[in-house]
Amino acid sequence: MFLYVLLCILFCYLAWKLRDGLRIGNTTDKYVFITGCDTGFGNLAAKTFDKKGFWVLAGCLTEAGASSLKEATSERLKTLLLDVTNSENVNKVADCIKSEVGEKGLWGLINNAGILGKMAPTDWLNINHFRAPIEVNLLGLINVSLALLPLIKKARGRVVNISSIGGRVAARGGGYVVAKFGVEGFNDSLRRDMKAFGVKVSCIEPGLFRTALSDADKALKKKLDLWNMLSTDIKRQYGEDYIQRVLGWTCIASRRKSKQGR
């Protein structure tokens, strides 16, 4: 029995190593479009694909982000100003991509653009606090996907949707986790729909990484701002020491992050 288990573990290990050793050939004729490239995962992905020899179309929200990325990459990378919540802008960018890729189609789409929004106990929030992350993280992702699916199908390419561990476990209130749960559902339905066309659809669920999105100090300031706007009644329900406990937890988290960064 022990030998059988050992052989199974060995087989799984070798299969894993073999899969990780696979490489993509002829990268110089493949186009990848990535959203949210100003900072964070999108920025790093754009630089990495550029170094690997792909043609990279990088969607940036700001001119400053686009300029900075362009300076750090080769002539194979082209930046496009993109606001995923603006349908007119999304369609215009899709037309630019269509002109760029031609008959080859779009080999890869990485839906990475996202915001954190306000994360706090649900009864601290109003509908607008939920709306902003849903507009960007879910509806923006769907908007971009729908606009580019014809080009992806033409190339028999792939779509990678960036979700979050927050799309599996709702650890706190706010629109972020609601949006990420929605991304999981959209990803599954799209994956099944596109299978017949040879299009691969994947979902990545990152945990907590040091990016601009997970800045503990910014998150604390947002929570303090919300606390200061609460009614006396809600503050009384939570207790005046509640925010002090939150401050203590955040300080501990910040110290741990500082140590990890050394």
Keywords:
262 residues; globular
Describe this structure as you would to a colleague:
This protein starts with a helix and ends with a helix. Helix 3 (63-71) links the parallel strand 2 and strand 3. The radius of gyration is 21 Å and the shape is globular. Helices cover 55% and strands 11% of the residues. The chain has 262 residues and is of the alpha/beta class. It has helices spanning 2-20, 40-51, 63-71, 87-101, 127-155, 175-194, 216-229, 232-238, 242-260, and strands at 31-34, 55-60, 77-81, 108-111, 158-162, 200-204. A six-stranded parallel sheet has the order 3-2-1-4-5-6, sandwiched between helices. The chain contains nine helices and six strands, in the order H-E-H-E-H-E-H-E-H-E-H-E-H-H-H. Residues 255-262 have low confidence and may be disordered.
Present the secondary structure layout.
Layout: H1 2-20, E1 31-34, H2 40-51, E2 55-60, H3 63-71, E3 77-81, H4 87-101, E4 108-111, H5 127-155, E5 158-162, H6 175-194, E6 200-204, H7 216-229, H8 232-238, H9 242-260
Parallel strand pairs: 1-2, 1-4, 2-3, 4-5, 5-6
Helix pairs in contact: 4-5, 5-6, 7-9
